[in-house]
Design a protein that fits this description.
The complex is a heterodimer of chains A (about 150) and B (about 1050).
Chain A (H helix, E strand, L loop, with lengths): L3 H30 L5 H28 L3 H19 L10 H51 L1
Helix pairs in contact in A: 1-2, 1-4, 2-3
Chain B lengths: L18 H5 L5 H4 L3 H8 L3 H4 L46 H5 L43 H5 L3 H6 L33 H7 L1 H9 L1 E2 L6 H12 L8 H8 L11 H12 L2 H7 L5 E4 L7 H4 L17 H5 L9 E3 L4 E2 L2 H6 L5 E4 L13 E3 L19 E3 L4 E3 L6 E3 L27 E5 L13 E7 L2 H5 L2 H12 L10 E7 L3 E5 L8 E5 L14 E3 L4 H14 L10 H12 L4 E7 L34 H12 L2 E7 L7 H9 L4 E4 L5 H17 L3 E10 L3 E7 L3 E4 L2 E7 L5 E7 L8 E11 L5 E13 L2 H6 L3 H16 L4 H24 L7 E4 L6 H9 L13 H11 L4 H8 L2 E4 L1 H5 L22 E5 L3 E6 L5 H8 L18 H16 L6 E6 L5 H5 L15 H13 L3
Parallel strand pairs in B: 1-6, 4-25, 6-10, 11-12, 11-16, 16-17, 17-18, 29-30
Antiparallel strand pairs in B: 2-26, 3-5, 5-23, 7-8, 8-9, 10-25, 12-13, 12-15, 13-14, 19-22, 19-24, 20-23, 21-22, 24-25, 27-28, 28-29
Helix pairs in contact in B: 8-9, 12-13, 18-19, 18-23, 21-22, 22-28, 25-26, 25-27, 25-29, 26-27, 26-34, 31-32
Classes of the chains: A mainly alpha (about 150), B alpha/beta (about 1050).
């Protein structure tokens, strides 16, 4: 059977998770600004999800590469590079002592990432739909082919 | 902080800080009631007053001012009060006319000369630059037009009214209702009342404090107040005292009406006062006319120098007399820009430096107010009631000055309002007359019962601690301070020592000797005893003393070189986290074991000048930041005492102090024989100074402006709430403002600093400082109201923070650029009308800014590069400067240099005022000089100094190496005299102990190290001298001008 729709389904699930994680982080920073959250809680919450988020994005990236989706791979590369840079310079974790100095830039970064994932999600969904459709059509052709034989 | 100890004995003194309130009972006002009309005759000077002015020495002019009612004759009694005179007599004319009348007397000091003529328009006209020294155009220009319309704060304030004339704009809405600044969750378990029962000191206090609850209790109040007041002044002289409150004439009075009066005062006052009082449009410095040939034109002696030390900004204090004292709150400019475009043209920081617990001189203590039924606060913005709120609706409502919301007055706070909007009981309400006041907080301001003062010691007992003698000096000092720890019977104390293992001490009071328990498992720290590690000092006093006596000998033979600092820190955290308190760390070596061990990353010369340079100044291990955050969370402040002669990574260790509101004390190469006194003094000050525990601070300000960033040693708990586990008088915090709206519609912006803390006596208190600042629409006005001290304080903090993310050079350039931009903008204001070529102009208020900027670039945290300052010293100085109050900072940047040999041989009184410029040229080879920057003394012996003096000071071995000689009292006149001088200096600035270094002229490298690099006006090690620096600034100002 055609595995492509399943692959795209996995992609879209991963993408949705990334979208959710980013939104969660963004919400955390907004709450901090509005004083609904203290820096201690914020840092423990965000630091808990940040590495999984990076790993997930990395996995998505590699999966695209492995399955030969070059365009999607290239599109997801900038974010992966940003994540890697943050990680390598040890800036990925929220520093509880200085969080108020970075809160606006962090929010901005999350917002950009959110936008990126939304667009990306749109692409993935489209490809999923296309692949489903093409799979269905392929099945139809099979059926047609079978029917012609019989 | 002396006011904190709620000790009944202190009580009578307290009202002294509230002149308005306190004399009231002894004056007829209380009964005479609020009728304005009845007051007026009292305040208004009668015609006879004018006679005081018949002979102003230099009133040769055609003077409009002469007939002015003399509101401010220095020695007169009632008439000296500034009240608004009757409608200005025609002779007052335009605001500036007062000046015309009195041609300035020659003002010799600082080489400044008044201009020969004055322009009527208020625009400066520069005198012909006939002589090279600066020719300040001392012109009193039209003062602040917006203020005139604002009503007349000064006069109403001085009459003790809550300024009914400032109607807060009705359309103002405070858009951001802030959540309560204080932990307002209900007390856990223990109610306030039971808390009182637990802490006897607190219970005693209650009935004695100025009880606000009964609105009318004049009798007792009167009695107490009167008693306290008597020694200060005769009770009748209300006005005379009020004059004392406003000692200096307004620098720039808001209303032109005053100008004549003001000037008269100057005429009578000595020239110095006159000079200060004049609001100059700008000062200038002649630099020659052709770029490139400056040297001929620049007169070095004419450069402005802050030889009087820190001059407190007077301008705002005179406009808003109910503002808190400038020792608590200083704004970088008292003129708040009215628009974002104006703010962006002001290239200096806009902000404030707050020292909430600054030491007050005796007689000016902050009054304590106890509302029995809840503290009066604005419903919406949570502002505390303050002198600037207005009462309306016959006293039933009050309008918040910050968000202009109309609040109800609680029934037991109600008082009638007279025709002028003044409450009849104003005199009994210190919070309505004083900019600074302390409220006793009820139970809703506590999340737990107030904590007792708690001191915990974490002591390194490795070989270097023993060998250097640190252990012995420290134990002796702590032992001698046990009697003076704040908190009397409530104080808790505990100790942990560590080398490669961690030693806990059971101090249970029933034990004859402390029990030592050793934990050697560093990976999984546990506390061997649930309690008794932290004990009540008064109960376990004998055990604690026995411990301190035996501590040095206990580790006498210790050969351990390791230091399990991180695990020990964790252990201390476990012991302390129940209560919070203060943790004092004595660290001698680089932490080498367990969590948080540090590498000898050292001071690598190759890293300097690269992008990685700043990493050296950051904590190496995130462990330290994380621990600091946890400590703050549990209300623990950390003071780090570091002693090593080798690299100890102060950058990492200091992080602990930085985020917990603590302090770093660094004694490089500690030797008990040399540094004993210093450690002793500083440790005992740390232990015995009045401390505010588990504090939080918030600065509120009016609509349209917002504090956006905070700088200092603390941790932010929310966007604008500073968590300060321990605060004391030696800590200051800076904050920067930004405008939220493009255009401010108000005419005044109010600031309110609120510090909620637990006093050592176990009382929850809120210290509130309120200040008002005018909104101005003119850049020149902002410059006129600028405060160099506050600007430099903010600059230093910003620059130090910048060194944590970029190179030293960039931090220095940052300062330079901002000064240049500010001066260029200022020049553009005036360059059009005046021929200013070849002269550098700057506002009078900022005349020391370039020099302080230069000094800042040469200060330890920013100086030079790799070889100039050791990394540890740099970091320690940076942590210290981040917490210094303005006055100490300015002294550190531009230290005192005085010549003393003449005083030593003569019998004349020593005059600390004769400070010398900090340049080698001030040093005479025949002289003996003392250099004092607040942290150390350097005594400089000239080559040709009379040998007698040297002999008398250092004894027979005066020919030997001075590094081995210390100055001590000897049995002769000269030695006694110099010790007297040094002690006088030490007493005037007790925050740190100035260790005395002796230096002989030409004794390199010692001389260079101690003194020459600190002479900021000289060219040292690639950095500019003062004259070159001014030329450099001048040239850059000229570019693109």
């Amino acid at each position: 059977m055609d595995w492509l729709p399943f692959l795209w389904l996995i992609f879209s699930c991963m993408n949705l998770t990334l979208l959710g994680l980013n939104f969660y982080e963004f919400l955390g920073f907004s709450d901090l600004e509005a004083d609904y959250l203290n820096p201690y809680e914020l840092s423990s919450r965000i630091n808990y999800v940040i590495v999984p988020e990076y790993l997930l994005h990395g996995a998505l990236c590699i999966l695209f590469l492995m399955t030969g989706h070059w365009i999607m791979f290239l599109l997801s590369l900038p974010t992966a590079y940003y994540n890697l840079k943050q990680y390598l310079s040890n800036k990925h974790l929220v520093d509880v002592t200085e969080v108020f100095k970075v809160v606006s830039t962090e929010k901005k970064a999350r917002l950009i990432k959110l936008g990126f994932y939304v667009i990306f999600f749109g692409l993935v969904i489209t490809r999923l739909a296309l692949s489903v459709v093409s799979a269905v059509f392929a099945d139809d052709e099979d059926i047609v082919a079978w029917s012609t034989i019989y | 902080m002396g006011t904190e100890n709620p000790n009944p004995r202190n009580y009578p003194l307290r009202p002294a800080a509230t002149p308005f309130a306190s004399q009231q009972p002894s004056t007829p006002f209380l009964s005479s009631g609020p009728v304005v009309g009845s007051e007026a005759p009292v305040f208004r000077p009668g015609p006879p007053a004018a006679s005081n002015f018949q002979a102003p020495p230099f009133s040769g002019g055609p003077l409009v001012g002469t007939e002015a009612p003399a509101f401010r004759v220095p020695t007169s009694n009632r008439s000296s009060e500034v009240v608004r005179p009757p409608p200005p007599p025609s002779s007052y004319g335009p605001p500036t006319s007062g000046f015309q009348s009195f041609p300035n007397p020659p003002m010799p000091s600082a080489g400044q000369v008044p201009p020969p003529h004055i322009s009527i328009t208020g625009r400066p006209v520069i005198a012909q630059p006939t002589r090279p020294p600066p020719v300040p155009a001392s012109i009193f220009s039209q003062p602040q037009p917006p203020l005139v319309s604002m009503g007349s704060p000064p006069q109403s304030i001085k009459t003790g009214q809550p300024n009914p004339n400032i109607p807060p704009p009705a359309d103002q809405h405070f858009s951001a209702p802030m959540p309560s600044s204080q932990p307002s969750s209900p007390p856990t378990g223990t109610s306030y009342a039971s808390g009182r029962g637990i802490y006897p000191g607190y219970a005693n206090m209650q009935p004695n404090s100025v009880s606000q609850a009964p609105p009318m209790q004049p009798a007792s109040f009167q009695l107490q107040q009167g008693g306290g007041y008597a020694p200060r002044a005769p009770p009748t002289s209300l006005l005379a005292q009020q004059r004392g409150y406003v000692p200096v004439p307004p620098v720039s009075t808001p209303s032109g009406i005053y100008s004549g009066n003001q000037f008269q005062q100057h005429g009578i006052a000595p020239p110095v006062a006159a000079q200060q009082g004049l609001a100059e449009d700008f000062s200038s410095l002649s630099l020659g006319s052709i770029p490139g040939s400056f040297d001929a034109g620049l007169d070095i002696t004419a450069l402005p120098r802050p030889l009087d030390g820190d001059v407190k900004p007077k301008s705002s204090a005179d406009m808003y007399q109910m503002n808190c004292n400038s020792r608590f709150l200083r704004l970088t400019t008292s003129g708040i820009p009215n628009s974002q475009s104006l703010a962006s043209r002001w290239h200096l920081p806009i902000g404030a430096v707050v020292c909430p617990l600054a030491e007050t001189p005796p007689g000016e203590e902050v009054p304590i107010v106890n509302f029995a039924t809840g503290i009066i606060r604005c419903r919406r913005c949570r502002t505390y009631v303050n002198p600037y709120v207005t009462f309306t609706d016959n006293g039933r409502k009050w309008r918040c000055n910050i968000c202009s919301l109309l609040n109800d007055v609680p029934s037991d706070y109600f008082a009638q309002v007279d025709a002028s909007g003044r409450r009849v009981d104003l005199d009994q309400r210190p919070e309505l007359i004083n900019g600074s006041v302390e409220f006793i907080a009820p139970a809703e301001y506590m999340v737990r019962p107030p904590m007792p003062p708690l001191y915990f010691f974490l002591i390194d007992v490795s070989i270097s601690a023993v060998k250097s003698g640190m252990l012995e000096v420290m134990s002796q000092t702590i032992r001698s301070c046990l009697d003076n720890l704040p908190g009397s019977t409530r104080t808790q104390i505990g100790f942990i020592t560590y080398d490669s293992t961690i030693h806990f001490y059971n101090m249970k009071s029933s034990l004859p000797q402390p029990q030592m328990m050793v934990v050697s498992d560093l990976d999984d720290i546990f506390v061997p005893l649930p309690d008794d590690l932290l004990v009540n000092l008064s109960e376990s006093r004998s055990v604690v003393e026995a411990f301190l006596d035996s501590l040095p000998s206990m580790f006498q033979e210790n050969m351990n070189v390791e230091s399990a600092f991180g695990p020990a820190l964790k252990a201390a955290f476990m012991v302390m986290s129940q209560l919070g308190g203060k943790l004092l760390i004595f660290q001698n070596t680089l932490p080498s074991l367990g969590a948080g061990h540090l590498k000898l990353r050292g001071d690598d010369i190759r890293v300097y000048g690269t992008d990685k340079e700043h990493i050296l100044r950051l904590p190496e291990d995130p462990f330290y930041k994380q621990m600091a955050a946890d400590f703050t969370k549990y209300q623990i402040a950390i003071n780090v005492y570091a002693f090593s002669d080798k690299y100890t990574d102060i950058a990492s260790l200091g992080t602990l102090a930085k985020y917990t509101g603590g302090q770093v004390y660094y004694y490089p190469n500690f030797q008990a024989s040399i540094h004993k006194e210093k450690l002793k003094h500083e440790l005992s000050r740390d232990l015995t100074r009045e401390t505010a525990w588990e504090a939080v601070m918030r600065i509120r300000c009016g609509k349209g402006v917002r504090f956006t960033s905070y700088h200092g040693n603390f941790m932010l708990r929310s966007t604008d709430l500073l968590a300060l586990p321990a605060v004391d008088c030696d800590k200051a915090y800076a904050a920067q403002l930004s405008l939220e709206e493009t255009l401010l519609t108000t005419q005044t912006v109010y600031f309110q600093v609120a510090l909620l803390y637990t006093s050592s006596s176990g009382e929850r208190r809120i210290r509130v400082h309120t200040a008002a600042a005018p909104v101005v629409n003119d850049l020149g006005e902002m410059y006129r109201l600028a405060d160099t001290g506050a600007i430099i304080s903010l600059f230093s903090r910003l620059a130090i923070e910048k060194t944590l993310s970029s190179k030293l050079e960039e931090a220095r350039n940052g300062i330079q650029h901002r000064i240049v931009k500010a001066l260029r903008e200022y020049r553009n204001l005036y360059a059009v009308q005046h021929r200013l070529s070849g002269r550098m102009i700057y506002p009078e208020s900022l005349k020391f800014l370039p020099l302080y900027g230069l000094a800042l670039c040469k200060s330890l945290p920013l100086r030079g590069g790799y070889s100039d300052v050791q990394l540890d010293e740099r970091s320690a100085a940076a942590y210290t400067m981040m917490a210094l109050p303005v006055k100490s900072l300015l002294k550190l940047l531009y230290p005192n240099l005085v010549r003393v040999d003449e005083y030593l041989v003569k019998t004349a009184e020593f005059d600390t005022k004769t400070r010398l410029p900090l340049t080698v040229e001030s040093l005479d080879t025949r002289g003996l000089y003392i250099f004092d920057d607040g942290f150390r003394f350097v005594v400089w012996f000239g080559k040709a100094l009379s040998p007698d003096i040297t002999k008398n000071l250092v004894g027979e071995d005066f020919a030997t190496d001075f590094s081995k000689v210390s100055l001590s009292q000897r049995d002769n006149y000269v030695s006694r005299k110099i010790m007297e001088i040094l002690n006088q200096y030490r007493k005037s600035d007790p925050s740190y102990f100035q260790l005395c270094h002796l230096v002989r002229q030409g004794d390199q490298p010692r001389e260079g190290f101690f003194l020459l690099t600190s002479l900021v006006e000289d060219q040292t090690g690639g950095a500019n001298g003062y004259a070159d620096w001014m030329l450099l600034l001048y040239r850059q100002v000229q570019q693109n001008a």
